[in-house]
Amino acid sequence: MTFLSDKALERLRSSEADFPGARYKLCEFIARGGMGVVYAAEDVKLPRRVALKILDTPDANGELASRLMREARILAQLEHPGIVPVHDVGVLPGGRVFYTMKFVEGLRLDRYIMQLDSLPQRLRLFLRVCDAVAFAHARGVVHRDLKPANIMVGSFGEVLVMDWGLAKILREHSLSRDETLITYGQKADVESDSTQSTVVTGHGTVMGTPGYMSPEQARGETEQIDVRSDIFSLGALLKFIAVGGAQGKSAALPRPLLAICAKATAESPIARYTRVPELAADLSLYLDGLPVSAYAENFLERFSRFYKRHEIAILLIAAYLIMRALVLLFFHR
Amino acid sequence: MTAAGESFPLTRISILAAARSQDGAERARALDILFGAYWKPVYKYIRLKFSQSPQDAQDLTQGFFAELLERELLSRFDPSKSRLRTYLRLCADSFALNEIKAASRRKRGGDFAHVALDFSAAEEELRTQAIDPASIPSPQSLEDFFEKEWIRSLFSAAVEELRAVCEAREKQKAFKLFEAYDLTDEEDISYADLAARFSLPLTEVNNQLAWARREFRRIALERLRSLCDSEEEFAREAKALFGVSTQ
Question: ipTM score here?
Answer without folding.
Answer: 0.71
